[in-house]
Fold:
Amino acid sequence: MTTPIFPAAVLWDMDGTILDTEPYWMAEETRLVEEAGGTWSTQEASELVGSDLNHSAQALLERTPVSGSSDEIVNALLDGVVRQVREEIPWRPGARELIAELAEAEVPMALVTMSWQPLAEVLLEALPPSTFAAVVTGDQVSDGKPHPEPYLTACRRLQVEPADCLAIEDSPTGVRAALAAGVRTLAVSHMVQVDEDLPATRRHSLEGLGLADLRRLFG
Structure:
């Protein structure tokens, strides 16, 4: 049997990996908490980086005076971030260029994000049509990252084996999800450092990174 050419697909995280939106999420969390009369530290915000939005909403409900339903909190956060991204898309260095090269080489790609569909749509509108052959958002899965469901869902939709794919992530939560799904993972830490004990390949940036480099990094 012929061994598939690696990567059979590239599975992209969005927040902190393609888009520099983590500061936006932190700012919106802080705004909600302060409007409710509470405080929200950078450390508390950092702990939620890469998490499912329902998990973030629950953390706000449990730790701060913020009230309402989980969906109400998620939508309030999401509306604020979408508004900011529509004003100016904050690309992470090298991400758009690598996406373009992979698309030109006809490497299938999936977007695997814990953000919900409205924010993913802003990114999709900014890229050529059909850049991503599959899109998995946080509102489409029962268990978000660090559970493997989002990545397994993306592989199923692309009809590829997880072991033949590459995930690109920026957070410990996302890296754990990809590794748990059996996907080889490139960790490009941004707002929080990926734990050294996680068996991911590390780069400080995607800038200057191409398909040939990905194949060399992963043998």
About this structure: Residues 70-87 form the longest helix (18 residues). The mean pLDDT is 92. Residues 22-87 form a domain with the DNA polymerase; domain 1 fold (CATH 1.10.150).
